[in-house]
Amino acid sequence: DLVRSRGLGDVYKRQVETEIELIATAEEVKSLSMDELYARIEQKLFVDDYAWQKRRMIPFGGKNRAKGLENLLYLCPKCGGELTTRTDGNDIYCAACGNRGTVDEYGFLHPVGEGSVIPEMVPDWVELERDALRREIAKDDFALIAPCHIQYHLDPNTTAHTDVGRGTATLTHTELIYEGTAEGKPIRYAFPLEGIYKFPFNMGNQFDVPNTIRTISIRPENKQINEKFVLALPLIHCLLYTSPSPRDRTRSR
Hints:
This protein is α+β, with helices and mostly antiparallel strands. It is built from 5 helices and 12 strands. The chain has helices spanning 26-31, 34-45, 49-56, 122-137, 225-240; strands at 2-9, 14-21, 85-88, 91-94, 100-103, 109-111, 144-152, 162-171, 175-182, 185-192, 207-209, 216-220. The protein has a 6-stranded antiparallel sheet with strand order 10-9-8-7-12-11, covered by helices on one side. Strands 3-4-5-6 form a 4-stranded antiparallel sheet, with no helix packed on it.
């Protein structure tokens, strides 16, 4: 069985909902393959929080409800500008064209002002970013390039990473490349994308490069482009590579 819990409400009143669903009976488990069982677990683990919230409409207070969204929603849905979104209190806007929206107390977005184009839900906005990325990735010369810092995990007493150099990160159809310095020396890393299906990431800060000899992170100088690297990798696999086994696949969101 799968137990799923969700915390609700404010600091004064908290409610917890739990849903219990049967994934497979004891007899079914005997006949299911590992991939079939994994697919069932994955399907049951998926939660659409926005769809749930639309049914329940639980209010959340706060005066800075949009804060941090600029690091996730880097593409303007009106003018198509990238890395131009900014936030101010409950509002999110495009510094290039003035497109503006606001986040209400239920977590939904609304356009502000005549002509503004704002998706109602954050996942819808992210899907616009994926659509734009699919068109980019379809080009033969696709390359996502960003000035960045490289980080190593140096302190065994913490999970934090430390900047050890500066250079350029380049994501292509086949590899992630870092060229620059590390610990005072010139260095070039090239990580093949085969076997890497997702970049673990810190929202708006850095993304990790799995399957490396040492733990390495890339911290783009512009925090907003971090999300673009994270979104691009699963799309590259979907468009150009054979889909991985469910045991190896990680949801893009």
